[in-house]
Amino acid sequence: CGGGLITEPLARLGxxxxxxxxxxxxxxxxxxxxxxxGLSVTYVDAPPESLAKAEHVxxxxxxxxxxxxxxxxxxxxxxxxxxxxxxxxxxxxxxxxTLKSLxxxxxxxxxxxxxxPPGTHDWRKFVRPAEMARQFRSRGIAVIxxxxxxxxxxxxxxxxxxxxxxxxxxxxxxxxx
Length: 177
Description:
α2 (24-36) links the parallel β1 and β2 (41-45). This protein has helices spanning 7-12, 24-36, 48-53, 73-82, 99-112, 129-137; strands spanning 17-21, 41-45, 58-64, 84-95, 141-152, 157-161, 167-174. It is built from 6 helices and 7 strands; from the N terminus they run αβαβαβαβααβββ.
C-alpha cells in the first residue's frame, strides 16, 4: 500500500480497506496519514504470503506498481490470489518489458524526470501483458480487461489507453462462487 495513495480514496468511498506493505516505514506513514485524515484503514506490515497463510479473504486485491519489484512475480500473484474470495477481483498494474518501457519507465522516470530514485526498477522484472494473463489464468483468474496507462506531460495527467507498451493494468475475476 505504500503511503496509502490507493487505500485512502477507497476508504473515503466507503470500502473496508486493509493496506499491506512489507515496509514498516511505509505502513507507519500510511497509518499516521489515515489518522490525520480521519479515515478508518487497517494497515498490516506484511507481504501477501503472510496474510494468505492466515486465511484472510477479501473481495478484491489491488496491486499497483508492486509486481515488478518482487523477487518472484508468480509467487506474489499466487499468494495474492489466495486472498481473494471466489468471484472477487484482482487488479494489477505494472510495467511492460519493452524497449519503450526501458526508455520511459526506467531511464526517463529515474534519471531524467527524477520521479523515483535511480535504481528503483529492474527492467528485467517488468512483466509483459501475456505473462500477466498466463499467471492469472494458471491461478484461476479470468482476465476481463487489460488497459494501458499513458502520461500526458502537458497536462500532467494520466489516462487509460490502448497502448500497453509502458504501463498497463490488468483486471481479473477469481473463478468459483
